[in-house]
Amino acid sequence: MSSTIEISKICGWCGKEFIARKCSTKYCCKRCSEHAYKAKKRKEHVARCNEKTVEAEKVKQSGNNEYMTPRQCASLLGLCVRTVYYHLEANLIPCIRLKGKTLISRASIDKMFENPPEYIKREKKVAEPIEEFYTTKQILEKFGISNSWLFKMAKERNIPKTVVRGKTLWSRKHIDNNLADKQPTETVAGEWYSVEEVCAKFNMSKEAVYRFVSERKIGKRKDKCKVFYSRRQFDKAMGIESELKPEYYTMPEAMARYNMTRDQISHYVRTHDIPRSYEGRYVRIDRKALDALFAPPKIG
Prior knowledge:
CATH class of the largest domain: Alpha Beta
Low-confidence stretches: none
Order of helices and strands: EEHEHHEEHEHHEEHHEHHEEHEHHEEH
CATH architecture of the largest domain: Alpha-Beta Complex
CATH topology of the largest domain: Molybdopterin biosynthesis moea protein, domain 2
Radius of gyration: 35 Å
Largest sheet: 3 strands, antiparallel
Strand content: 15-25%
């Protein structure tokens, strides 16, 4: 539906008065808009050319100076500033470092070209043939990523691939190097269930697993790109004996380890729901959970 408002405006190109339907309209017709756009681009192009001329003049003037900064040296030699600093660190370009400033002598630059070393042609590196591959299905199962993310990542990082009999094969070496951070650590894999492991062991759907851990408040953690649930807590909630043999603190051991009173340890155990068990009148507190609670804080 078109606007019903009428605004009297002056065209920004031809200067004629016209009726606009929007407050943002600047030109009376498409032709004036195109002329204004071309004029704007022409001015931007002229401005860029003038900037290049000014930069070239600065480089010319800096080349006549007896001493130069690394940035001026980079402009003179046609290198990037990081490359110049790399040569300075390798002592290929002599310099003097004052407080807060590095200076390079123009005479030392000229002297480098008086007796240059013999040019040695770089040998072309022979690419090693790729003989080990992953299929797309193997990558998705091993690293727990989606099909679309795999193809997007492979395109960005230029991972070699080939198609054989309708199947896409990916270089195993390149995939392992680029997705090394997607593999869970051995500690997580040993003491925590993944969603797939829970579904296979207890014959549950993913929806049932998510509802179960939410209702029973099962401890979880995220490692790399996958979510894991506490193996001990899940087995206990299912009413089975855990396959893992947990290590425990006795109350006197916990008091001595953290220099706290019995009431303080009991408060933290109850407040943070630390796994514990009772043998007669003795309490056993999960060692790893308590150590994790009192571990030094980390940022990043």
